[in-house]
Design goal:
There is one protein chain. The chain has 235 residues and is mainly beta. It has a domain of 163 residues. Helices cover 8% and strands 54% of the residues. The strands form 2 sheets. The chain has a 12-stranded antiparallel beta barrel with strand order 1-4-5-6-7-8-9-10-11-12-13-14. A two-stranded antiparallel ribbon has the order 2-3.
């Protein structure tokens, strides 16, 4: 057994622990004009993105998916599973640790139970760590390592900063790959994800508002930009 397979075993062994400690449930869906992830467009069409998670204490487990409404975008369909642990401090901000399992059911004849590595399997396993600074300077830093099924073991680094203009919630994001990666189609250290986003709510009734978002996203390395609109529904 290779070291990379231990990530798979760790992810699936943590699931019963998360479910057993569950105290709350969250569910909903996003509807987006494009599914753009880390500067790349998946499916090139409107996508529906359901999500479901349970949490208890500092542990949360969840499942997230994205499905293109276009038949020729089916290869971009994605169904992920993740486990996260959060640790908050009184004065130093909060830390997050977790593992994400990326699975693409539309990529040809892919067996869900194939956990082989080096590009031959059906699952890409990525451990991650994040840090959110205190409110005085609320920057968030994120680092992830594609530890399983990626021959380049690609690393992704991202920083984001929320702010507000005229009562509208805004955010700045920049993400990069620090070295050569076929997964991200770069030959050296490259910035692949730059963006600014805005979020607001459309009031429908006194009891119901529809969350809306718009994001301008630029991938400077691949010289392409996107303007993505979305809305969310949840109980």
């Amino acid at each position: 057994m290779t070291n990379r397979h231990y990530y798979c075993i760790l992810l699936w062994s943590l699931l019963p622990l998360g479910i057993a400690s569950a105290q709350s449930v969250s569910l909903g869906a996003d509807f987006v004009s494009r599914y753009v992830w880390r500067g790349f467009d998946f499916g090139q069409s409107f996508s529906v993105q359901p999500s479901f998670s349970v949490s208890g204490g500092n542990i949360e487990i969840g499942s997230w998916a994205s499905y293109s409404i276009a038949a020729d975008g089916a290869e971009a369909n994605e169904h992920d599973l993740w486990v996260g642990y959060s640790l908050e401090t009184e004065s130093a901000g909060s830390f997050g640790f977790g593992i994400t399992d990326y699975y693409f059911p539309g990529l040809g004849e892919i067996d869900f139970f194939n956990f082989e590595g080096d590009g031959a399997g059906s699952h890409w396993i990525e451990p991650y760590v994040s840090y959110s600074a205190p409110e005085s300077f609320p920057i968030t830093l994120y680092a992830a390592f594609m530890a399983h099924n990626d021959p380049d073991r690609s690393i992704y680094l991202e920083g984001s900063l929320p702010f507000e203009i005229g009562g509208t919630a805004m955010g700045l994001t920049i993400g990069m790959v620090p070295g050569e990666s076929a997964f991200y189609a770069v030959a050296s250290a490259s910035v692949i994800n730059m963006g600014v986003s805005a979020e607001t709510e459309l009031k429908i009734t006194d009891q119901f508002s529809l969350p809306l978002s718009v994001a301008y996203i630029l991938n400077p390395t691949h010289e392409v930009s996107y303007l993505v609109f979305g809305f969310s529904i949840s109980p």
